[in-house]
Amino acid sequence: MQTYFMDDLKRIGAVTYREFSEYFLEANQLCIFSSELTQHWRSRKEWVKDGKPDLDYLSKEFGNYESVFKIVYGRCRCLCTILLTDLLVVHAIGFVQARPWLRS
Questions:
Q1: Strand 10-12 to strand 31-33: parallel, antiparallel, or no bridges (unpaired)?
Q2: SS3 sequence, the chain?
Q3: What are 41-97's pLDDT values in tens digits?
Q4: Among 42, 16, 91, which residue's Cα sits nearest to residue 99?
């Protein structure tokens, strides 16, 4: 398993699709999208309410999609799938914060 640190990732702002495709998609390189790049994305307006994720909206619009998450407990690691709506319920009741081994 490879570990990445935020400082190791390139933060990208204004970029053409061709550049993004060549330098990140085709090269399979991780990156961080800057707020400049995402400022006009619908998700920045629709997925957030009062500065926090709008769990009701996300559940309504995307709840039937499967979400992949990783369970990390000691040396054990497991990738699992769960419906997004179920993962949002787990998040809403605070299970994710209470259980640091669950990573979504």
A1: parallel
A2: CCCCCHHHCEEECCCCHHHHHHHHHCCCCCEEECHHHHCCCHHHHHCEECCEECHHHHHHHHCCCEEEEEEEECCEEEEEEEEHHHHHHHHHCCHHHHCCCEEC
A3: 898 889 889 988 888 898 899 989 988 777 777 777 777 788 888 888 777 666 554
A4: 91
Specify which residues 70 forms β-bridges with. 79, 103
Structure tokens at 24: 């990140």
Pairing of strands 66-73, 76-83: antiparallel
Q: If you search the block for the tokens 């054990």, which residue do you land on?
A: 76
